[in-house]
Specification:
mainly beta
Length: about 130
């Protein structure tokens, strides 16, 4: 099954940390860039971070740069989002998505991704 599955969300106090994980059973997992997006209540889904198929290129939104880290382990078909120094404004449903093209860098826009997970809720209390 190609569809990603996220886990690791939860309730955390401001300043705390969470590690989100995303896995997919697709055999070509290592050939695709992966991205994390989030959607807060009443807001549009927004880009958070992405990692290229090789893992050599990573990009973050300005709002999470320096606090979040994306990584991948292709041997385990896993992608991670380490979130530190969490703020109340990080509260959202976080989604993992697979790039629609092989061997790419990923993109900051959700239309470039073709497989999405169901999301995992992250709630940061202030």
């Amino acid at each position: 099954q190609v569809q990603p599955v996220e886990s690791g969300g939860g309730l955390v106090q401001a300043g705390g940390s969470l590690l989100l994980t995303c896995t997919s059973s697709g055999r070509a997992f290592g050939q695709y860039a992966l991205g994390w997006f989030r959607q807060a209540p009443g807001k549009e889904r927004e880009f958070v971070a992405r990692i290229s198929w090789s893992g050599g290129t990573k990009k973050y939104s300005d709002s999470v740069k320096g606090r979040f880290t994306i990584a991948r382990d292709d041997a385990k078909n896993m992608v991670y989002l380490q979130m530190n120094s969490l703020k109340a404004e990080d509260t959202a449903v976080y989604y993992c998505a697979r790039d629609s093209a092989r061997y790419g860098l990923g993109a900051d826009v959700d239309r470039e991704y073709d497989y999405w997970g169901q999301g995992t809720q992250v709630t940061v209390s202030s």
